[in-house]
Design goal:
The chain is an alpha+beta fold. The chain contains 9 helices and 17 strands. Helix 4 (about 305-325) packs parallel to helix 8 (about 410-430), helix 5 (about 330-350) runs antiparallel to helix 6 (about 355-380) and helix 7 packs antiparallel against helix 8 (about 410-430).
Length: about 450
Amino acid sequence: MNKYPLLGKVLIIGFLMIALSVPLAMVYDLVIERSRTREAAVHDIARAHAGEQTIVGPVLYLPYTETYPTTVPVPGDAALTRVEMVTKEHVSIQFPALLEARGRLETETGMRGIFPVTVYTSRHEARGRFVFEDIVPRMKDGQIALGDPLVLMGVSDLRGLMRAPQLRIGTNAVALRQAPAGMKTPLPLAAPLSREQFKPKAALEFQLDYELAGTGAIGWTPLADETIVNLESPWPHPSFGGSFLPRTRQVTDQGFEATWSVPSLSSRAQQQFLDRREQGQTLETFDVRLQDPVDVYRLTERATKYGLMFVLLTFAAFFALEMVKRWRIHPMQYLMIGAALVLFFLLLLSLAEHAPFPWAYLAASAACIGLLGYYLRHVLGGWMPGLGMSGMLATLYGVLYGILISEDNALIMGSLLLFGVLAAIMIATRKLDWYNVMRAQPASDANPATTASAPV
């Protein structure tokens, strides 16, 4: 290595980067572990409060019997036949022709240890109309006898019902309760109806009022021929998802209001509902999630992914300036600088759990820049070189923060950063004689600022 000092220095720096990747990986694993702990806290709150909610229904559940004649052979004489009446039980599911729902969602933040969890309570008023379709016999000459009709409704987590949903259909007002024991209904809540209301093409106007609590998200399954849902909330950071986006939405710092309009022609939810009893299909839904505007674990995880590049850029800048300025920086000093850069990500994670992410990032970066500035003032033999390198680090931290908060532009910002650093190194070393650089120098020729420690 004495013969090729430049190659030796590059190999040592490369080894140090490999060594520093180990604590970086440990910090990354710690971020993942803390994120899982936060998810466990969310699940604990959901178990005590209620989980994510999806509202299904209402639908008409019409049990009926069909009696029809059939010809069967006479026992003991296959040449003779007789007519017997056969009775079979069936169920007809009929969906609303129209469902218009309005909801108001209020949020609050619960705490599980140091982890905040957003929960909500909501009030809903639904109006709509069923148009009863006469049940056609499946068999020739069949006769239909309608059983006891029910209106069914379901929510994902029944614990979130703050009171029994109140249904008014026609002139009858009833509360939805648990479906009758022993009945295998596709939805858990049911209200009985009178058979006298069901005449062919009869329009059954209804209204349904209920209050629902949940955690994280609320959604609907569009089972009506025309489903219209309006939801408003003071939560300013909604994330709309599912199979259908709102037709209109307005999001401000004071909250959001969104309206979905889904016709059955554009949805497979009705057929999925009819089929899922046999096939276990999931239903199409649309929903809104109460997204955390700044997920500190997601941002810290992304920052840690850039950690090795951050160390590489810093080492590259130091190495280039070492060539140009004839500084002599010992590998142990490179290791100390790298350790401070790695420690930044651990500081960022710990501070972000207790403070807003921008302030946590500012405090962690200021602490590391201050420490490195003080250290480099002694390594480089003066305040000016130390301040200059601190300014470079501050620029790198600033660019990294821009990459973190601008996810859509992260690729172009990262590419421009790498290109800019490479261009700066190439320009700074454009006149360097690489054959003679870093050759062994007599002690008298060495930079006195780097061969002796400066006073504190």
